[in-house]
Amino acid sequence: MPDQAAALLLPGDAFDTDQHQVMGRRVAGRSLAMALASHLQPNEELRLIALEQGERQRLGQMLQPLLPVGSRLAISASLSPQELCRFGCLHLPEPGLGRWSQLRSGLPAHAFSFSGIIHTLCSAGVVDALGQLLTSHLYSWDALICSSMAGRQVVEAALQSQHESLQERFGVALPRPEGPQLPLIPLAIDPSPLRWQEHFASRQAQRLWARQKLGLPANAVVVLFVGRLSFHSKAHPEVLYRALTAVARRASQPILLVECGHFYNQEIAAAWGKLAHDHPSLHVHRLGGLEPATDEQKNWALAAADLFCSPADNLQETFGLTLLEAMAAELPVVASDWNGYRDLVEHGSSGFLIPTADPLVNADPTRPDALELRYRLGLLNYDQLVAQRSLAVVVDAHALEKALEQLVEQPQRRAAMGVQGRQRLEQRFSWAVVAGQYRQLWRELAERRRQALATGPKKAQQTLQAPQTRLFGHYATMALPRGPWRRGAQAASVLLEPMQAGTMREWCGQGLPELVHWLQDWPIGDVRHEWAVHQAWSRIGVPESTHPSVLGGLLKLGLLEAN
């Protein structure tokens, strides 16, 4: 039966922007699931894995209305390796494929594939995870998707650095492992909600309507910024304020800066207030604040604007979904020439890329500088690291001012660039295109597994890290006794007492109440065979993988006794 050739692992933290803070990786995870659901073929099934019941319910509510006729949605709570063999590939919302490769322990290495995706790449945890790609059991039928060329360069540099370090440590030339693949597949959006043609006679008519909604002047040139209002983790706003203040002094029309986003805390909001106070001639209208702007407000702002500007300067950036939203709204984009941004904006055609300078460019690439060393040693936290890196990045203020002035004074050029950006988006960054690239990747990984089955490794994969079964198996005197077992005198309700109820729920899941009833129906002193007990547990929903632990708990608490 046709399917997506992969199952998507989607914990709430990777898609749920209602329960969690709005962040690019969550928006991207939500968007990917919605895109794949929308582009299923008849008789295809979209497979998702979410471990919490509430997450499964929210995924179902979000995706079920998007399914084309004849397609299906299957949401599982199981990470069973046997299930993953049937799915073919497990897609992860993160780059840390190494730790997940343990799911193939004891199975042939080609039993199923892993794919993952990069987001922020500068935290210590992510950098360590990138290094583990080289030393984990990953192969050519696994893939880490890189959303931008700059992001892929980061991954390749991390792998090369790890390889060189290992060779130096052991004093020998070591071969590079064959995997994982590093395909370049961008993030994407659905551009259709921002099309003006369905409701308005012209883009200008939509613009005037949106300005009425937001209370913005009809005659101003509106420059829009969308994103986190954070000088330390997104973009320092001073260079944009300074450039727009200079342009406004010479402009033939009023200029209005619209900021759409949110502040993390009162201190950041106060710093923004001080910046506005220091630029009194610049008119600013803010949507959001300590409470995030709504999606409706954001869409109105995109419709109301004349041009979009994002002078990002932060290591956390790897792509730039807000730039795609601006392109969908037919806005020319003025953005810093910074990491993944340069993949999106075609300089001089759909907008302008503003040069940037960074002390890291000429730093010694063979060792961490003083700032990174302090962070690696735990003497500096992550926010402090990205803040200090960001403040040292220079966005060319003169080039920014020149680009903004050209677009402010040339409405026809603004319109032409906006149309070019929309076309570029539809051709390269729409989900209609990118969803197909995901499907093609998963088909290629499946073909690599088939080739491995015919010619390559059939040996069971071991774990890279010694498992606790090997490390601690000698602690106890003996193994658990085998059956048959006799029902002990302890009341079954003891399983629901606070000391063990939480752990028993972890082991039994939805089967815990049924296990309690099953024990209550087992007469004290009655003997049952081992196979019958395990068969009963599986029937009432206790996962087979936890049967040994459940047995130990029941013996420990006196609910069972060795016969």
Protein model, in words:
It is elongated and about 95 Å long. Helices cover 44% and strands 13% of the residues. The model has no long low-confidence stretch (mean pLDDT 92). The chain folds into 3 domains: 7-187 and 435-455, no CATH class; 195-358 and 393-429, Glycogen Phosphorylase B (Rossmann fold), CATH 3.40.50.2000; 476-562, no CATH class. The strands form 4 sheets. A 6-stranded parallel beta sheet has the order 3-2-1-4-5-6. With 563 residues, the chain is of the alpha/beta class.
Kindly list the characteristics that best describe this protein.
alpha/beta; Rossmann fold; elongated; 17 strands; 22 helices
In short:
44% of the residues lie in helices and 13% in strands. It has 563 residues and is an alpha/beta fold.
User: Which runs of at least 5 residues are low in confidence (pLDDT < 50)?
Assistant: none
Biggest sheet, spatial arrangement of strands: 3-2-1-4-5-6
Average pLDDT metric: 92
Q: Give me the number of helical elements.
A: 22
Number of individual domains: 3
- C-alpha Rg (nearest Å): 28 Å
Q: What structural class do helix, strand and pairing data support? A: alpha/beta
Largest sheet: 6 strands, parallel
Q: How many β-strands, per DSSP?
A: 17
Q: Quote the beta fraction.
A: 5-15%
Q: What percent of the residues sit in helical stretches (DSSP H or I)?
A: 40-55%
Q: How far apart are the termini? A: 48 Å
The rough form would be described as elongated
